[in-house]
UniProtKB/TrEMBL annotation:
Residues 580-609 are annotated as: Disordered. The keyword Membrane applies. GO terms for biological process: intracellular protein transport; vesicle-mediated transport. The keyword Cytoplasm does not apply. Belongs to the adaptor complexes large subunit family. Keywords: Cytoplasmic vesicle, Golgi apparatus, Membrane, Protein transport, Transport. It comes from the Eukaryota. Transmembrane segments: none annotated. This is AP-1 complex subunit gamma.
């Protein structure tokens, strides 16, 4: 005997009572069989009940496509109960991908013309939900007529339907332009809010509409001022704020610009900030002031409002304030500076997103006048910040110190503090930058070597710190042993203690191969700076001749051969590095001269003088080649060029030529650029940094960049720095791609970009075939 069909309430109870997914599927399959049978029998009385059950099954994720035609039959029915379920089914089961949705166009047109308000409301809701471009063109005249109907219920729904139609068919703007001016005279707040939304949509889609509506700006300002200054109204008040939704809509109409300064001031002073609705109105006021290029006084007002938000107990409001201040800091730096203590206090937030935004804003507030105070705060935060923020904090401190350092000593102390606190989180170029800074400050050589020796004696786990300390001890070990340093308390160190500390670094399991290379080179250089016997250094060097690390083994073999065969040249080869001048005109001149010399050397023939052959013999350290063996062509005919190979620091080959950047995408102010780096230690690896910038007037949100490469390559996508690119050149989004290309195959890149811009969803898929040859050859 076949079980009878269930009522909707009974079906819901039975599905919820199922203990397993298999029981739930069994119940739904049986009921769907009853629904199909009822549809085949054509029962008109209970059709809407069967479709209601099917819609519930659809919302649970089960297939319900066989009910699409039943929706059309119910919509064509004259009974309101049938139409209600039929229109609901059309909104859930039909969309533009199904041709069946076009069949209800005539039914919607008839219902819109009937004059029955509930039926008109159903038809308008359905049209605004799933109306295609063809339906919008056919039904636009009917919707236009309803905009001027006496019933506020129908007019509200007609306005929202008009918004959907303009988004689908922008050329319909001329149809809905005239009624908007009349609708602004309405006193009904719901109609006013819908009208403002419609006007904003028209202005964004049509320049002619934007020009047309400029003349109604005073009327909008009057409406906004009336909302702010009128007394309490129970009909439109939410938490004591007079219709915040309409106020937000009025402020959001920034496309018309030119809002009255008096109106913004009145809103800012009369709005209750103890309620969330009032804070929403104030935030829209701030966005309006930011977007319409207001006077300096109004922009200061906006910054002060955001400063009050920072003191709010709600974390969401504080996050919004920090994000908005980050947008304003470039244009109104002095105004944002007044709230610097509050921003710094936000660094201690337990919420990770808040502390990250506070860190970004704090780094943006650093300048030459407050760099000492801000660095103290940021260094204190670095010691206690979460691990996922340490890399960003350390990099930000190093960049700010390099840009605003008042003295070289302060700069060195700051970098040392970062290396000591978060050495494993610093950028790769931190070691090179600090060694260059110390090398160029001759008056601070003794101070630096003493500071670094003390730091190394306390902790050898921070690898960048150990590398810098080893380099400095190797270069200026004689100053360390003299103990003459006026800046700090004199330190008495003997030779054995220095050698023992470097040996400790070599033997530590925490030391990276590159760190051991620095320590081994430091020991070798100390052999010319110490007064005692070098037997201990020679023994350590000889041990690493059989090291498994090829780079370290090569260094040890070269240094050991230097002891055995060329000991008379060791002092000259291992003398101190020359002073390095940092950025400046002299550095630019030297770079230009070296470039010209390189071009001349490429054009000149290879030298064949006997002196070059003798110098090449210095590099034949294996001592196993015969006199007739062919030597490789010399890289540099000068004696200095041959000796540089021995003086070179570990893992420091000549830097490759820079790879030019590439612009691959640009649309409506959104631009995507690619920059390339090939690490010298791993030529098969290519690091691509994508940078997304936005010069338009609207923010880019939900930005996602995905990539694909040929199967012969390996691609790894790192997490992006964010998903929002603020308007007008705000903070860009960066993302790192790691591409492994061991076979040096020609590189092709396929990118897919998705983001929201000007209230529209954008998706672009394109292929980049013009990547620089240097990026893969």
């Amino acid at each position: 005997m076949v079980a009878p069909s269930l009522k909707l309430q009974d079906l819901i109870e039975e599905i919820r009572g199922a203990k397993t997914q298999a029981q739930e599927r069994e119940v739904i399959q049986k009921e769907c069989a009853h629904i199909r049978a009822s549809f085949r029998d054509g029962d008109p009385v209970h059709r809407h009940r069967q479709l209601a059950k099917l819609l519930y099954v659809h919302m649970l994720g089960y297939p319900a496509h066989f009910g699409q035609m039943e929706c059309l039959k119910l919509i064509a029915s004259s009974r309101f109960t049938d139409k209600r379920v039929g229109y609901l089914g059309a909104m859930l089961l039909l969309d533009e991908r199904h041709d069946a949705h076009l069949l209800i166009t005539n039914s919607i047109k008839n219902d819109l013309s009937q004059g029955i308000q509930p039926v008109q409301g159903l038809a308008l809701c359905t049209l605004s939900t799933m109306g295609s471009a063809e339906m919008c063109r056919d039904l636009a005249p009917e919707v236009e007529k309803l905009l001027l109907q006496p019933s506020p219920y129908v007019r509200k729904k007609a306005i929202l339907t008009a918004v959907h139609m303009i988004r689908k068919v922008p050329e319909l703007s001329s149809v809905f332009l005239p009624p908007c001016v009349h609708l602004l005279h309405e006193r009904h707040h719901g109609i006013l809010l819908g009208t403002i939304t419609l006007i904003m949509e028209l202005c964004e889609r049509s320049p002619a509409a934007l020009r047309h509506f400029r003349k109604v700006v005073p009327q909008l300002v009057h409406i906004l001022r009336t909302l702010v200054t009128t007394g309490y109204s129970t009909e439109h008040s939410i938490s004591g704020v007079s219709d915040p939704f309409l106020q937000v809509g009025g402020h959001s109409s920034k496309t018309m610009t030119n809002i009255s300064p008096l109106s913004s001031t009145q809103v800012a002073t009369n709005t209750d900030t103890s309620r969330n609705a009032g804070n929403a109105v104030l935030f829209e006021t701030v966005l309006t002031i930011m977007d319409i290029h207001s006077a300096a006084g109004l922009r200061v007002l906006a910054v002060n409002i955001l400063g009050r938000f920072l003191l709010n107990s709600d974390r969401n409001i504080r996050y919004v304030a920090l994000t908005s201040l980050l947008r304003l800091v470039q244009s109104d730096h002095s105004a944002v500076q007044r709230h610097r203590p509050t921003v710094v206090d936000c660094l201690q937030e337990t919420d990770a997103s808040l502390s990250r935004r506070a860190l970004e804003l704090s780094l943006a507030l650093v300048n030459s006048s407050n760099v000492r105070a801000m660095m103290q705060e940021l260094q204190a935060f670095l010691e206690s910040c979460p691990p996922d923020l340490r890399a960003d904090c350390a990099s930000g401190i190093l960049l700010a110190a390099e840009r605003f350092a008042p003295t070289k000593r302060w700069h060195i102390d700051t970098i040392l503090h970062v290396l000591t606190t978060a050495g494993t989180h610093v950028r790769d170029d931190a070691v090179a930058n600090l060694t260059q800074l110390i090398g160029g400050a001759q008056e601070l050589h003794a101070y630096s070597v003493h500071r670094l020796y003390n730091a190394l004696a306390e902790d050898i786990s921070q690898q960048p710190l150990v590398q810098v300390a080893a380099w400095c001890i190797g270069e200026y070990g004689d100053l360390l042993l003299e103990g003459n340093c006026e800046e700090i308390e004199p330190l008495q160190v003997d030779e054995e203690e220095v050698l023992a500390l470097l040996e400790k670094v070599l033997q530590s399991h925490m030391s990276l191969p590159a760190t051991r290379g620095y320590a081994l080179t430091a020991l070798m250089k100390l052999s010319t700076r110490l007064q005692g016997d070098n037997n201990r250094i020679r023994q350590v060097v000889s041990i690493y001749r059989s090291c498994l690390d090829v780079e370290l083994q090569q260094r040890a073999v070269e240094y050991d051969t230097l002891f055995r065969k060329y000991d008379h040249m060791r002092a000259a080869i291992l003398e101190k590095m020359p002073l390095v001048e940092r950025d400046g005109p002299q550095a630019d001149e030297e770079a230009k001269e070296s470039k010209e010399a390189a071009q001349l050397s490429e054009a000149a023939p290879a030298p064949t003088e006997p002196q070059a052959s003798q110098l090449l013999d210095l590099l034949d350290l294996l001592d196993g080649a015969s006199g007739d063996a062919q030597h490789p062509p010399p890289l540099d005919p000068s004696p200095g060029g041959a000796l540089v190979y021995l003086l070179d620091l570990p893992c420091a080959p000549l830097p490759p030529a820079p790879i030019p950047d590439l612009k691959v995408f640009e649309r409506e102010g959104v631009q995507l650029n690619l920059s390339f780096i090939r690490p010298p230690e791993n030529p098969a690896l290519l690091l691509i940094t994508i940078t997304a910038t936005n010069s338009s007037e609207g923010d880019v949100t939900n930005f996602i960049c995905q990539a694909a490469v040929p199967k012969s390559l390996q691609l790894q996508l790192q997490a992006p720095s964010g998903n929002t690119v603020p308007a007008r050149g705000g903070l860009p989004i960066t993302q790192l791609f790691r591409i492994l290309n061991p076979n040096k195959a020609p590189l092709r890149l396929k990118l897919r970009l998705t983001y929201n811009h000007f209230h529209q969803s954008v998706q672009e898929i394109f292929e980049v075939n013009n990547l620089p040859v240097e990026s893969w050859q």
